[in-house]
């Protein structure tokens, strides 16, 4: 258990004065964050007033304008937006699943994001229980697949590994369904008590066949009918709206450095969210955190040695589109990046950072965060994770620090109708803000860079040794990386700055 806020701050001031940058920078920073602040009100405005923020939506555009204003209210003069393009606009229609046989009952369902619409009048088809949708499951029912709606099970979501598996397993199931001529897929919700949520299985392109998520209790009822030998037949109607390419925007704010101003330390979180809830845990809380970190550094009168850049991404839910475009657009200045810090795990306590297989960075980060050791901020991981906006920085060889957070209440509310502000404990969010801001500032004030930017050969070795190539293959990124279409240039040599 962490100590109360004021006691924790006092303990830091009394026990670790030698570790405080320039005597009291860190103390002033913590005071600005842990005292009265606009953090909670910013989160309320973003989630309650604006709500869910799907890229391409009117709410998302309002969120961009709000974020620019929030940085400017915080006194950050260097604030701007950068636009990028996503290939297809998408909006859910009035999704409906109607049970025709053996007995009608109401099925709660939502469309998978970027699912194609069903034909006018919907799809009327038999439902085939495919278990987990493994190759063996498909083989066992091969004669019945064509023209059927496939009911696919998933375990209740409890751990990060469960979530990663849910995404990783979807693509092969979809590929098998398409090859077999299935009419569509009904995914059984991984959340209980009727909670529905939105996932996407593409990188912003329209999916290969119609798919919906059905409430767990309703999906299991259909499965029991099938297990009892009763034919199950439903009508799936999803009049989704599909449009052309559209423009979204990232938000960028900056506090200039002093004697090392040509070097950049960046902190980012994604601004977009799904719209069934209001995107509070994923990732509104951490948008508010990034803005608050900038405000606190500015309010405390701290002059960072290196330039601090604050980045709010769009298109994260459509395949990291915003951060990917940013890295491509800013390729000429990537040598200037000392580190990119990312946070995208709700409000689970920040216990440390995953440093993508680089022990020299772990050592440096441990030194930076030594003043917060009594807070338990020491669980740094050498693991290399994907799934968020640090990926393209990593692929460019830049040191990345992805916040190491336990699941807390993130997974039960992930992408769901229940992802609302009441799930966010402001006390925990303040502590996480203090930790992320302290790490950002500490890296900025170091005499030495946190670590070198890796050259192409070093990066390839790191990716293969850490098994990150498996994630890249699952996400369809690996071939682009090998071909030099994404990530560090093929001719970048054996090392960086």
Brief overview, please?
With 497 residues, the protein is α/β, with parallel strands linked by helices. The chain is 35% helix and 19% strand.
Protein model, in words:
The structure is a single chain. By secondary structure, the chain is α/β, with parallel strands linked by helices. The protein has two domains: 5-87 and 245-453, Zn peptidases (Aminopeptidase, 3-Layer(aba) Sandwich), CATH 3.40.630.10; 90-242, Glucose Oxidase, domain 1. The chain has 15 helices and 17 strands. The protein has helices spanning 5-15, 25-34, 39-50, 58-73, 135-140, 160-180, 216-227, 280-299, 321-329, 359-368, 391-395, 426-445, 456-465, 468-474, 478-482; strands spanning 78-86, 90-91, 96-101, 106-107, 109-111, 123-129, 149-152, 184-188, 211-214, 233-237, 241-242, 246-255, 260-270, 306-313, 337-342, 352-354, 400-404. The strands form three sheets. An eight-stranded mixed sheet has the order 4-3-10-6-7-8-9-5, sandwiched between helices. Strands 1-12-14-13-15-17-16 form a seven-stranded mixed sheet. It has a two-stranded antiparallel sheet with strand order 2-11.
Radius of gyration: 24 Å
Could you give me the name of the CATH homologous superfamily of the largest domain? Zn peptidases
Instruction: Give the spatial strand order of the biggest sheet.
Output: 4-3-10-6-7-8-9-5
Number of DSSP E strands: 17
Q: Note the beta-strand portion.
A: 15-25%
What characteristic shape results from the CA principal axes? globular
Low-confidence stretches: 1-8, 10-23
Number of helices: 15
Mean pLDDT: 94
Query: What class, by secondary structure content?
Result: alpha/beta
* CATH topology description of the largest domain: Aminopeptidase
């Amino acid at each position: 258990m962490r100590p109360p806020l004021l006691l924790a701050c006092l303990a830091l001031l009394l026990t670790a004065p030698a570790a405080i940058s320039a005597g009291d920078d860190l103390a002033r920073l913590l005071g600005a964050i842990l005292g009265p602040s606009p953090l909670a009100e910013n989160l309320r405005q973003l989630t309650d007033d604006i709500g869910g923020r799907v890229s391409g939506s009117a709410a998302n555009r309002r969120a961009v304008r709000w974020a620019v204003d929030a940085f400017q209210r915080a006194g950050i003069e260097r604030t701007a937006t950068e636009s990028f393009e996503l290939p297809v606009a998408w909006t859910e229609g009035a999704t409906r699943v109607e049970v025709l046989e053996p007995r009608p009952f109401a099925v709660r369902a939502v469309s998978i994001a970027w699912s194609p619409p069903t034909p006018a009048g919907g799809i009327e088809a038999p439902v085939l229980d495919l278990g987990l949708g493994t190759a063996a499951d498909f083989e066992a029912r091969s004669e019945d697949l064509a023209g059927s709606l496939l009911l696919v099970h998933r375990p209740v979501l409890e751990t990060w590994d469960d979530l990663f598996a849910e995404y990783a397993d979807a693509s092969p199931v979809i590929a098998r369904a398409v090859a077999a001529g299935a009419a569509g897929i009904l995914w059984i919700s991984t959340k209980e008590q009727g909670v529905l949520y939105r996932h996407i299985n593409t990188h912003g392109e329209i999916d290969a066949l119609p798919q919906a998520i059905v409430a767990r209790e309703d999906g299991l009822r259909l499965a029991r009918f099938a297990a009892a030998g009763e034919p199950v037949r439903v009508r799936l109607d999803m009049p989704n709206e599909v449009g052309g390419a559209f423009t979204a925007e990232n938000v960028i704010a900056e506090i200039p450095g002093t004697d090392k101003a040509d070097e950049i330390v960046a902190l980012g979180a994604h601004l977009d969210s799904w719209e069934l809830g209001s995107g509070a845990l994923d990732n509104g809380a951490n948008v508010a955190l990034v803005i608050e970190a900038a405000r606190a550094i500015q309010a405390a009168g701290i002059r960072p040695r290196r330039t601090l850049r604050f980045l709010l991404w769009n298109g994260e839910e459509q395949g990291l589109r915003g951060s990917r475009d940013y890295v491509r657009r800013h390729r000429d200045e990537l040598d200037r990046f000392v580190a990119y810090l990312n946070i995208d795990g709700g409000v689970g306590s920040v216990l440390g950072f995953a440093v993508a297989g680089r022990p020299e960075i772990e050592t440096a980060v441990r030194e930076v965060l030594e003043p917060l050791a009594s807070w338990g901020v020491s669980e740094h991981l050498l693991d290399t994770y994907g799934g968020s906006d640090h990926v393209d920085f990593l692929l460019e060889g830049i040191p990345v620090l992805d916040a190491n957070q336990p699941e807390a209440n993130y997974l039960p509310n992930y992408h769901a109708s229940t992802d609302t502000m009441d799930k966010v404990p402001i006390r925990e969010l303040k502590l996480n803000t203090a930790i992320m801001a302290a790490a950002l500032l500490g890296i900025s004030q170091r005499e030495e860079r946190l670590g070198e930017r890796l050259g192409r050969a070093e990066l390839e070795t790191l990716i293969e040794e850490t098994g990150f190539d498996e994630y890249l293959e699952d996400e369809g990124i690996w071939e682009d990386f090998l071909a030099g279409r994404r990530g560090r240039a093929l001719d970048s040599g054996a090392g960086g700055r």
